[in-house]
């Protein structure tokens, strides 16, 4: 925890910690808006800055509150500037919601230490594949034109990534993006807008659970949400202006951060 006297009982962090968390929320909002993966920044910041006597669900609920509003802002910017196909977006979102719920239910029975190394291998493979194919995703060239072909593939992507989000979570937005690019032939920019809306759905499902149980530091969460929204607004505008090549670069950087985090978690699990 960062040192310093608490601001008030209803805001259980020091002034220094609050500044640190607001900065992390802004950066996370920007990253999340461009390609997903803002949780890799914001959640560790909350773990560091919030006192250890605050229960974990409150940390997770506060993170989801901030992320939800940031993703909502980015989705609004994207949807105003980029045309989406409802025939793809609807099954993607429906699959993401149901998959996230199923993953959350299964997460109680599957040890995290079993999942982390598997996900690490998957992320390394995705990063290598993207790096070795420099032209992939730079142009929006959908591979399927028939509604049926698009619907069932979008639904499967939604269910699979949604299930992962409910089960483990880190890098969910990035997995949405790479599958839309690799399977459906979307450009990185077009994949990002669909990924944002799908990720918004999974965040809403999780936020509802934490909200029902009152497991949110509301004042802190709303303060972080405001800055996260600003970061999301800027990030979405930058992505839509600079295009798929810019999104691809940020995507590879986020995957690099995710690889380091998962590798560290795996080492700690097997040596600790």
From TrEMBL:
Keywords, alphabetical: Cell membrane, Membrane, Transmembrane, Transmembrane helix, Transport
Residue spans crossing the bilayer: 86-108, 114-132, 144-163, 175-195, 216-239, 245-264
Topology of the protein relative to the lipid bilayer: Multi-pass membrane protein
Location(s) in or outside the cell: Cell membrane
Main location: membrane
Domain of life, per lineage: Bacteria
Alphabetical list of InterPro entries matching this protein: TM_pro_TauE-like, TSUP
UniProt xrefs under PANTHER family: MEMBRANE TRANSPORTER PROTEIN YFCA-RELATED, TRANSMEMBRANE PROTEIN YFCA
Family the entry assigns: Belongs to the 4-toluene sulfonate uptake permease (TSUP) (TC 2.A.102) family.
Protein name: Probable membrane transporter protein
UniProt source species: Microbacterium aurantiacum
